[in-house]
Amino acid sequence: MNDEELMRAALAVAQQASASGDVPVGAVIFNNTGEIVATGHNERELNNDPTAHAEIVAIRKAALSLGEWRLENHTIVVTLEPCPMCAGAIAQSRISTLVFGAWDEKAGAVGSVWDLIRDPRSLNKVEVRGGVLADECSAVLKEFIQGVRKKD
Q1: Which residues share a beta bridge with 30?
Q2: Which of 55, 81, 105, 143 is catalytic?
Q3: Vertex 128 angle, CA 89 and 85, to 5°
Q4: For residue 129, what are the β-bridge partners?
Q5: Tens digits of per-residue pLDDT, 16-59?
Q6: What whole-number distance in Å separates Cα of residue 28 and Cα of residue 143?
């Protein structure tokens, strides 16, 4: 599967977050044969948990499913550039590759505001491919935010 096909899977997961009032961000973790190991979407509102970002939810599910916290040779695909917390979790879980969609100019930690993942001092090296279907990923977020503003 190419990056766009992987991102379409993450976009489908992102739509599930809207139902609970969460920002529609989706994450999918694939193994090295392209099989889905785990998915996650934002669940902060659903669970009143500030750490329940899509990436964290997916990483927890993958580790539990595999019985292993080291996710080497796995790829995480997420619709929004990870924040510092999620970038740290990706590095700590030893995920090999990160693919993300929309850039986050306010809190992005993979090139927009900071670049924690590719910092030369980082112990774990993660391959990064950003901006995949960025316009589509951004549109999902903008549509959600406009809907929230209409309600207020």
Answers
A1: 36, 75
A2: 55
A3: 20
A4: 99
A5: 988 888 999 999 999 999 999 999 999 999 999 999 999 999 99
A6: 21
